[in-house]
Amino acid sequence: MEQFQWPNQGAARLICKSRWQETPDCISFTLTSEEQDKTFSFIAGQFVTLGVEIDGNTEYRAYSLSSLSNQTEMQFTVKRVAGGKVSNYLNDHLQVGQSLQVLPPAGQFHIEQPHTDKILLLSAGCGITPVMSMAKTLLADSQDRTEIHFIHAATCAEQLIYHAELQQMEQLHPRFKLDIMLEDATNTDYLEGRLTQAALANYCPDIASRTAFLCGPVGFMQAMKENLAALGMDMTLFYQESFTPAESTQPEVEDTKSKAAALAHATVFVPSFGTETKIVTGSLLIDALESAKVPVIAACRSGICGSCKCKVTNGDFTRTSSETLTEQEIAEGFVLACSCQIHSDVEVSLN
Ligand code: FES
């Protein structure tokens, strides 16, 4: 079968082939090409960026793939979240047969990163998607000998994403070990509680000799990273990903009057679009560009996907991520707008 050819620039249009309720607030979708006979190549752990039209605007968001590469369908799972514009839209409106814009798979959180022959896949909630793809990929390769310990945390049994599939993987593959911890383990054999350092050590006594791939909500990830370091893991063999937006560094000021007086302002100038936007210093560049209606794509808003790359040609800024940028691009002033705080008047180029 032929591989799907992504356009050299911009998004492809793919079709929603199927959708099903994964848990009460998560839906899984598959995407396929219009001809439905092309395969999609990616590295397990990578994400795609989806563009959906909501109220006349195209909103972009990144979703990790949970399926195997080189299939005619790509699978991802979307959790409904309070105020989640795109996630709720997809849950409510993306139906079988509808098309949407999709940017090619991307990301550095993937199974081809250097790893030892024993790995720990550690996730919570919807963070399971990329590590599920990694597990499936390693198990699908009969030559591969990697021992996989898959530890997943969720609130309760009904919130377990891919539960039946995980149980089946454990039954079929002696080199796949599954442990699940639930905050409420009523009517299950799983342990109840939170994944503490002691719980991790108990589940996985050889944790220090493993390579870890971690994905989940930001608080969970911070705690797990500290736990793994404290348990002696070699942190050069630790990989993580979380789509959690960066925050601006605007100072907190109490009342509106003193706020106006206290906050310094700067201007974001984009010559190619003829826009000038006044912002409070410390604001994120992406917010300034979006309020000026400059057509910049911000898919992950977390400094991971690289879609919001642009160049600051003049002025002061700081970065909280330069994930997808090369050393040369960094030296030349390229930034990820979602992870770039502005500290003076700046001039920006989108090319
Ligand atoms: S939106 Fe993904 S890196 Fe900025």
Automatic annotation (TrEMBL):
Which stretches are transmembrane?
none
Start and end of every 2Fe-2S ferredoxin-type domain? Answer: 264-351
Q: Which UniProt keywords apply?
A: 2Fe-2S, FAD, Flavoprotein, Iron, Iron-sulfur, Membrane, Metal-binding, Oxidoreductase, Transmembrane
Q: Which cofactor does it need?
A: FAD; [2Fe-2S] cluster
Which InterPro entries does this chain map to? 2Fe-2S_ferredoxin-like_sf, 2Fe-2S_ferredoxin-type, 2Fe2S_fd_BS, Beta-grasp_dom_sf, Cbr1-like_FAD-bd_dom, FAD-bd_FR_type, Flavoprot_Pyr_Nucl_cyt_Rdtase, FNR_nucleotide-bd
Cite the FAD-binding FR-type domain residue spans from the record. 7-112
Signal sequence coordinates: none
- A Pfam family annotated for this UniProt entry: FAD_binding_6
Q: Give the protein family.
A: In the N-terminal section; belongs to the FAD-binding oxidoreductase type 6 family.
Q: What is this protein's record name?
A: Hybrid-cluster NAD(P)-dependent oxidoreductase
